[in-house]
Design goal:
Beta-galactosidase, Chain A, domain 5; 25% strand; nine-stranded antiparallel beta sheet; hydrolase; alpha+beta; Glyco_hydro_65_M; five-stranded antiparallel beta sheet; Glycoside hydrolase family 65 protein; GH65_N; 671 residues; 15 helices
Length: 671
Amino acid sequence: MKNLFIVFFCLVSVLAIKANGQESLWKIQAVDYQGTYYGAAVANGGIGILPWKEPFSVRHVMLNHVFDAAAPQDVSRVLRGINPFNLQMQIDGQGVSGDNISGWGQCIDMKAATHDTHFTYGGKADISYSICALRNMPYAGLVRVEVAALEDMYLSVENPIEVPDEYKNSGSKQVSVNVDGNELKIVRTWALSKYREQKVSASSAFIYDKNPNLQQQYDGTNRIAISLKKGDKFSFALLGSVCTGRDFIDPYNESDREVIYGAKEGLNRLMDGHRKLWNELWEGDIMIEGDDEAQRAVRFALYNLYSNARKGSRLSISPFGLSAQGYNGHIFWDTELWMYPPMLFMNQGIARTMMDYRTDRLEAACQRALSYGYEGAMFPWESDDAGEESCPTWALTGAFEHHITADIAIAAWNYYCMSGDKRWLREEGFPLMEKVAEFWVSRVEKNNEDGSYSIRNVVCADEYAEGVDDNAFTNGAAMRALQDAAKAAAVCGVKAPAIWKEIASKLRIPKFENGVTMEYEGYNGQAIKQADANLLVYPLNLITRPEEIRKDLEYYEDKIDKTGPAMSFSVLALQYARLGEGDKAYELFVQSFRPNQLPPFGVISEGAGGTNPYFVTGAGGLLQTVINGFCGLEVTDNGIKQLFSKLPKHWKKLTITGVGPDRKTYVRMQK
């Protein structure tokens, strides 16, 4: 056991730290216990664990796509799990808390995907612990602890299980199992969610080497205790699992089985498996020479995207991932426009599972179209696990922000272009794209005066604009969806209806007299929540002439609400990089994350000055600036191309590894 708890700590603040070799660029540190604190979750695509600054504190556990409601007859809300990962420690009968510690430090090790803490308790003990959501066990997490006695002491540790207030009918019991001749004492705690009665079960157990001096007892809570002499070191671990009725018919026994499996595997094998899978993820990496701040921000963004999804799960990522209940854990356009594109380049398995989420819910989208008098498939603005509309009724976005249906179809075509998987296109991709095309044929209205087509009464991507006609992004996205559906039909040997191409060629995109793209019919310079018309350049590629791109950039930059979502500045930065203006691109790039970073780790909020991390959507935006802007990568009908672009003048080199299905490396050098 003594070699299992190696934890690395650095002694400088994350936002001011200087580079100390490449190793430091994998770590984000905090040392000011009294400072403002916003936590950073560890996640594995199945659960998210949010450690806090107090010794051994875990604020909550998030469950992936497990929903209840916040109140009777309310919309769905993702559940916090029963929390089996909390520890409480006493030394000589005194509780270890933030009031009696010194030398506190925390470190997020992105390469190892661990959240590490170290402190000294009252001159009596040096204590280190490391928390991870096991990548190789998507419903399990591990807390590894080492206590070094600085004087003779009596140590006791308990594992109180926390049941959040969104549950009812909770219960708990201890289960004893023989594992390799050792008695493994598991505490199982279970409950039902309040309104939809989701079954949730959490199990946990202490794991340690045999020691005749160690005592373990259960009085509703698992406890261990041991006397230590000065110079002794004692190591142990807490292994926990949270299972639900969404994923298991019998989550109660399954949560026990997960703990038994982990105990039998042993901590070395568990951590080896965890590290192996994270090493595979990091085959897709981004390296920036000449800007340590950007390197950490970009790698942290990539780390969070990897953390919040996993291949094979057939699930997607909500705007706040597995860090919090923000936006009720629903799936928005954030997935297809902002988080999915980086994964399409960096990790094919995760990109595929994000597409699986949508193809699995095509039937629900067809039912929604039928419910509103349309043909084909109409995807919800806010999707829960059933794929039904879950947007609160006070928001018009749920009923009228229709561009999401086109966004999903475009993502499907891009997946085919990247993967070249014709079988997937025939069996899953084209059936979705065809239904989306049918929706837009039924949604548009023909203008008799000139034969053009309009889409009326929508909420724009700029959500400050409601009930408008011919929104630039909505119409542009519908145009792309129809064009891509026709191309997909040709690949699949199907004759596309002629109306698809006709509508795509005649959808109205309003323009000002000077040629600037008008956000919607009648727009006259109002403040906008986020980029909209500029999205016709990227990602839609409908405006390609540099002079037109520049006009739209210059017009809309100062119209964007500076406290709005961070992605606007990401997409503007990307376009300036492709225009060859690397320094202007950099100015906007840092605006997409600096004002949103929160201490001590630099987790990002949705908007500048916000306090709601971690905003995974923003991470997707800043990654696109680097991948598709500064490096110039583009997915085309014929695969990946590297377009012209410029780096910021202080960046020496940008290297992106593990790109696409062939895991290629792309480089952009400073010239």
